[in-house]
Structure formats: structure tokens, C-alpha cells
Amino acid sequence: MKRLTTFRSQFDFQSIRWKDMIRWFPGHMHKGMKDLEESLLRIDGIVELHDARIPHSGRNPELYKRLVGGHKPHVLILNKSDLADPNYLNKSIEYIQIEQPNTQVIHTNLMSIELKELTNIFGRLLQQIVESPRYTRSSTLEYNIVVCGIPNVGKSTFINKLRNLFVNKRSCEQVGANPGVTRTMSEKVKISNRPKVFVRDTPGILEPRLKSANESFRLLLTNSIPIQQRELSDIIADYCLFLLNKYDKQRLYMKYCELDRPTDDILTVLTAIAKLKHCTQVYGNKRGYDLTGAALHFIHEISKGTFGQITFDQDILDEMEKEKSNDTNLFRTNTGRIKKSI
Ligand SMILES: Nc1nc2c(ncn2[C@@H]2O[C@H](COP(=O)(O)OP(=O)(O)OP(=O)(O)O)[C@@H](O)[C@H]2O)c(=O)[nH]1
């Protein structure tokens, strides 16, 4: 008879100082919000990109309060929807609109976006912009849009797509798999002639807001912040395994690791990967499995979707569903939890 596997219901972060662990914000990121604030008077609309797998984690509510404030047209694009669980895409939109009812939220997969969809997104933003009061800018005939978001969410890809599709210019923005590639705010680029619309060709990078160990680890898994300490890769890999089990996404990692049953033991997974991928290392005069290398491999695979489409913030969205009921209003507390008002 097959043994039933029991899984952890909570992850033990082993008292690691998660704030120190991922204290990785280069100067250009601290500058992001400041630059955006300074350019506020000159801009007509904000496009914010975020990763569809983490509609809650890493989002910076300051952006909405300080920059948008319900006055500036604001479109939030939950990108990389191809990597998120399709069952949670609409729930993510609903989650964000509880706190930000004036924000248009859409999800995209910029890797395979069609002209029609992009035109539609652009059209919706433009309509909002044209219909909004422009105060001191009302005599200006051109419109300025700023694109912002945390690292590696697809800001440069989005701008490139707009530029290529609307102005038919060749792509020249650097697009990178490593977070924080784009460094500075630079000149504006025209993306439409009638009306004249400009977008910053180098987007504003926002520092992700880290409110808990859970959120920080989820940002590591989406590659929005890099893993700086290799020696912590095993605990991050263990967190991946914890989430895969918690969200019932066991089939693909079992197949990948050639396991006949799911497991809650990270050593079993890492040893299987080390064997299959020939991750070895010399220890003294002996060669042994390189479990740190295997852990980094496992983390990389989960972040690129090898173990399926996963919404890392699924538990938060499930909680929202539980709290929801027709005759009560939902609101979000300071810690980001959804509650019912009575
Ligand atoms: N799977 C998937 N990958 C995407 C998508 N959009 C962008 N990417 C990839 O994500 C990585 C980061 O994209 P960028 O456009 O450089 O992201 P960015 O936000 O400008 O990054 P920074 O410069 O670090 O702030 C690249 O490898 C893109 O090819 C998407 O919708 N789905």
C-alpha cells in the first residue's frame, strides 16, 4: 500500500533575517520613485507593470497613494500571465481593485501578445488620459506616459512592443533576464502620431515593498530580486517545495525528479536533481553531489514555469475568496490582508 505523505502547513523560515538577506537595492532603484515624483507634473498617465504571479507581494502602495492618488490615469498590467495559474488571473484583478478601484487592471503575456490586444491596452489608456483633466498641461498637445514597476517584470519588453508596433521602429531597448538591468530615466520616445504620445524609453524602477519573509521569498522566485547568498539557496529551494505541495502542484516536479510520490523532504528532491543533472563537486579528495547547485537549479526551474503555472500569492487570493460575501465590504489592512467591514 502507498504511504500517505503529510505536508507542512507552515514554512519555518528558521529565524533568518530576511530583510538583510535580500537587502539588494542599488541606488538607481531608490531613485525610481523620486524621479517619478519629479516628473509627475509633466506626465498624463502611468503604466505600472507587475508580475501576475504575485499580485500582492512586492507591490508598492505608495505608488498609488503618492503618484496616482486616484487622479492620474493609471493602468496596472499584470504581466507574465503565461507563468501564472489561469484560475487566479481574474481573482488577482479583483484583489487589486478592492484597494484601487480607479485603476484599470489587465493581465498580459508580452511574449505572445497580439497587435489587437496591445492596441486595445493602448486605446484604453489613451481614452482615460484624454478624458482626464490636465490642469496646467491643457494647452500642450502632446501626451506623456511613464512606465514603471519593480525589476524584471517586463517594462522594457512592453516599451519595445509599443514602439515596434506603433512606430515600426527597430527594437533597441535592452531586455534582460537579470533583475535591475535598466538603470536610468532617459529621453522620451514617440509611440503614436495622432495624437502625439510619448513614453519614457527607459522605465522607472520601483523598489519592491518587502513586508514579510513570505513576500520576499516570492520576489526571489519571480526573479524580481536576485539571490545574493548562494549558501541560502537550500532554504529557498525548500520554500519552493513547500509551495508546490501547498498548492497541489506535485505532478510536474515528481516527473522532473523521477520520484514515484510527492515529498516534503527537500534533500530527496535536491539529491534527485543532482543525480539527474550531474551536479557534482570535489570535497577534499572525494567527489560528491553539489546540493547547492541543485538547489539553484530547482529555484531557476520553478521561476521559469517548469513545474507548471503557479500564482505564488494563491493563498492570499484564497483568503480573499473566503472573506468575500455579498452583504459586506472588503478592505485591505496595513499588512495587506483582506478583511470584511461590518
Ligand atoms: N514568460 C514571460 N517572460 C517575459 C514576459 N515579458 C517579459 N519577459 C521576460 O522577462 C525578462 C525581463 O524583461 P525586461 O523587459 O527586461 O524587464 P524590465 O522590467 O525592463 O527589467 P529591469 O530592467 O530589470 O527593470 C526578459 O527575459 C523577458 O524576455 C512575459 O509576459 N512572459
**Ligands bound to this protein structure:** guanosine-5'-triphosphate
Instruction: Report mean pLDDT, rounded to a whole number.
Output: 81
Which of globular, elongated, flat, extended, rod-shaped describes the shape? Answer: elongated
Termini separation:
50 Å
Overall number of structural domains:
2
| Largest sheet descriptor | 7 strands, mixed
Radius of gyration over alpha carbons? 22 Å
Structural class: alpha/beta
Instruction: Enter the CATH topology name of the largest domain.
Output: Rossmann fold
As a percent range, the share of helical residues equals 25-40%
**Low-confidence regions:** 169-176
For this structure, what is the CATH class of the largest domain?
Alpha Beta
Description of the molecule:
The protein has 342 residues and is α/β, with parallel strands linked by helices. The protein has 2 domains: 1-24 and 226-311, Conserved Hypothetical Protein Ylqf, Chain: A, domain 2 (Orthogonal Bundle); 25-205, P-loop containing nucleotide triphosphate hydrolases (Rossmann fold, 3-Layer(aba) Sandwich), CATH 3.40.50. 38% of the residues lie in helices and 15% in strands. It is built from 12 helices and 11 strands. It has helices spanning 18-21, 27-39, 61-68, 89-99, 115-131, 155-167, 213-221, 233-246, 251-257, 266-276, 291-303, 314-323; strands at residues 45-51, 74-79, 104-107, 143-149, 188-192, 197-200, 204-205, 280-283, 286-289, 329-332, 338-341. The strands form 3 sheets. Strands 1, 2, 3, 4, 5, 6 and 7 form a 7-stranded mixed sheet that branches. It has a two-stranded antiparallel ribbon with strand order 8-9. A hairpin with a 2-residue loop joins β8 (280-283) and β9. α8 (233-246) packs across α11 and α10 packs across α11. The longest helix is centred in the middle third of the chain and has 17 residues, at 115-131. The radius of gyration is 22 Å and the shape is elongated. The structure holds guanosine-5'-triphosphate.
